[in-house]
What does this fold into?
Amino acid sequence: MTRFLIPAAIFLALAGVLYVGVVHSPNKSTMQSALLGKAVPEFSLPVLANPGMTLSKAQLKGSPWVLNVWGTWCAACRDEHETLLGIARQNALPLVGLNWKDEDDAAIDWLRQLGNPYSVVAVDRDGRTAIEFGVYGAPETFFIDADSRVQYRHVGPMTPEVWEREFLSRIPRGVLP
Amino acid sequence: MIPELGHFALVLALLLAAAQAVFGLWGAQRRDPRWMSVVRPAVAGQFVLLSTAIGALVHAFVSFDFSVLYVASNSNSALPTFYRVAALWGAHEGSLLLWAWILAAWTLAVAIASRNLPESFASRVMGVLGFVSFGFLVFTVATSNPFERIFPVPADGRDLNPVLQDPALAIHPPLLYMGYVGMSVAFAFACAAMLEGKLDQTWARWTRPWTTMAWAFLGVGIALGSWWAYYELGWGGYWFWDPVENASFMPWLVATALIHSLAATEKRGVFKSWTLLLAILAFSLSLLGTFLVRSGVLTSVHSFAADPTRGLFILGFLIIVIGGALALYAWRAPLLKSPAGFEGTSREAFLLYNNIFLVVAAAMVLVGTLAPLIADALGATPLSVGSPYFDKLFPMLMLPLGALVAVGIHAAWKRGQLGNNRRRILTGFGVALLIGVVLVYGVYGAGKPLTPIGMVLGVWIIVSSLFDPIDRLRRRLTLPRAILGMTLAHIGLGVGIVAISTVESYSVERDAAIAPGETLALGRYGYRFDSIKEIEGPNYDGVRAEVTVLRDGEPVAVLQPEQRNYWVQRSTLTEAGIASRWNMDLFVALSKNVGGGRWSVRAQLRPLIDWVWLSAAFMALGAVLAVTDRRYRVRAAGREPAIEPAIGQGSAAEQT
It folds into this structure.
C-alpha cells in the first residue's frame, strides 16, 4: 500500500517547489511596471510651449512627483482630464505631463481649452522616453519618489479613488503641505 | 456583438462541462442510465459552443476588430490573413481557448467511438474529461477572457509577435496541443478504470489507439518546433533544452513508455498498476508543461504572461487533478493483480527496461528544467543547469536504451530465451558494426568518442527492426499494419539516432564578416557573397543577400538569407538561407552590417540534419498505421470475443 503512495508524495513535493516558484516570481502582474522599485530612466526632453527649455530627471530629484502620460489623440485622456484638474487643485504632488507622440500645437490648444493640470509638460514626440518607461498605452500614471525610483504605476484613466489610495498614501509624512 | 456571442458560448460551454462531469461521474456511480444519457449530448453541445467561440474570435481577427483587446494586442491591419487566423493562438488567452476546443474535439471523438464500451465506463471517461474541461474553462473565463473589449478602440493593433509569423510555427502549437490534450484521453481511461475498480486486457486495447495517436501528434509538434528553431532563430541549432522545449519533451518520453507498457498490459495482462501510473504521469506532465509555459515561473524575465494569479490557479488545478488521480491510484492500484510471471529476457522484461530508462530520462529532464525553482525553494542562489547538463546525461540514458531496443525487438513474450534468437542478434549487430564503422571512419572521419557508438546503435536498431517483417514476407505471412507501424517507428528511432550522432559530430560552421564578392571557405565548400538588396514585405522591410555555394569551385546552390525588421513590434528577425540535400543542409544566416560594406554571416554544413525531423515523421506514420490496424476496427464493431489467449511461443510472430 505505502509504495503506491510514493508518486503522490513526490508530486506534493513538486507542487511545493512550484508554489515557491509562483510566489517568488518577480513580476507580480502583467500590468506592473518592470521599473517598479528601480530608478527612472534618464531623459532630457523639450518643455511644451517653452522653446529652448528642457526637463530632465535630475531637475525633479529631491521630492516625490507624478508622471502622467497623455496625448490629444487619446480619448481616455480626455476622460481623466477633469480628475487631473481636481488633483492639481489639491497641490499635493507636482504633476508632470509627458505629451506622447503628439503635435505641439494640438497639445497647447487642448490645455488652453480644457485647463492645464500640469506643473510642466515634457514633449516625447518620437515616443522613446515612453518606451523606456514601459508605457503600454495612454493614459498611464507613475508615482516617483524623492530618490527618482518608480513606486507605482497606474494603467488607464486616473480616478479620485486610485489617486487617494495609491498616490496620496505614498507621500512620506511631513511632505504634505 | 459577435465577440459577446463568443463569450456567451464560452460560458455556456463551461456549464455544459460541469454537467458532463457531474452526470458522467455521479451517474455512473449511481448506475442511473437517465443521468448517464445526459453525457453525450453535453459533449456534443460543448463542442458546438466552443467551435462558436473559436469562430467568433477568428471573425474578430479576420475583420480587424481592434475593439477586442486580444485582437488589438496580437494583430495588425498589415498582417496577412493566414497569420491573422494563426494569431488566435499567438498569446495566452487564445491558446487556452484552443486548448479547450481541442479537448472538446477529442472528447467528441471518444463519445462517438465509445458507443460499444460499457455504459458506466464510457460515462466515467467522459465525466473525467468534462472535469478537466471545466477546470480549463473556469480558468479561461475567470482569468484569461479572450473576448475582453478595450476602450478607447485603438486605431491599429500591436501586431503578432514576429517570431510567430512563420508557417511552421503557426501550425506547431495546434499539433502540440493535440498531443498534450490527447494524453487526457489516456488519463481519463485510467481514472475510469480505477473508479470502476476493474482493469483488464480489454481496457488496454481500448486505451492503446488513443494514446498512440496523441503520442504521434506530440512527436510531430515537437519536431516542427525544433525545425522552426533551426531556420528561424538563425544559429542553426535544432534543440536548446529550453524550458519550453523540455515541457513538451517530458510528456513525450513518458508517453513513449506508456505505449510500450500498454502493449504488455494488453498482450500479457502485466504492468497494470504501472500502466495506470504512466497514463497519469503523461497527462500530468502535459499539464505541467502548460503550467510552466503559461505561468511564466521559468521565463519570467521576458514573459508577459508572468502572472501569479494565473500561476496559482493552474497550480491549484494541477493539485486537484493530479493529486486526486494519484490519491485514487494509491487507493485502487494495490487491488490490481498482474497474474502472469515472465523471464528476465522475455519481451515483457525488455519493455520494462525500456520503461525504466524512459521514465528516468523524463525525471532527469524534469530536474534539469526545474533546477532554478528547486534551488530557489531551498533558499540557494537560483541556478540554471543549461545544456551542458542535458548534453552529458541524456546520451548516457539513450544509448543503453538504443541497445535494449535493438536486442529486445527479437524477444518473445513470457518465456523468451535470447538464445533462440542469438543468430538474429549477432547478424544484426555484425551488419550494424560494419555499416557504422564505414560511415564513421570511411565517409565522415573520426568524430567524438560517442559518435561510433551512436552510429552503430542507430543502424543496429534499423537492421533489427527489419528482420521480422522480412521473415514474414519470405514465409508469405500477412504483415498486419500494427507490425508495419511498429517497424516504421523503430526505424524512425534508429534514423534519429544516426542523424543526431552525425549532426553533433560532423557539423562545421564559420562566422565571418564578408563583403559582396568575397568567398568564405568551409571545407570543400565555398560561400560566395554575391549581392545584397533591400526588400519589403507586407508588414516588414529588410535586406536579402544572395549567396552562391560552390563545391570544388562549381556552383551547387544559391541561398537567400534575410534580415527582417517588423514595423509594429520593432524587432529584427533572421531568416536563414538553407538548401537541403538528402545528405546535408547548406546553411547561411545573415547577421548585422558591420560597416564598410561588410556583413557578419554564419555559414554551416550540417550533415543529415533533416533526418532528425524526418525520424519524427517515420514515428508518426508508424503510429497512424498501427491505430488503423484491422484488430481495432473489427473490435470496435464489437464482434470480436473479449481477449485472445496470448501465448508467446519462442517466435516473434505475435508482435504488436
Remarks:
- The CA atoms of residues 138 and 244 of chain B lie 24 Å apart.
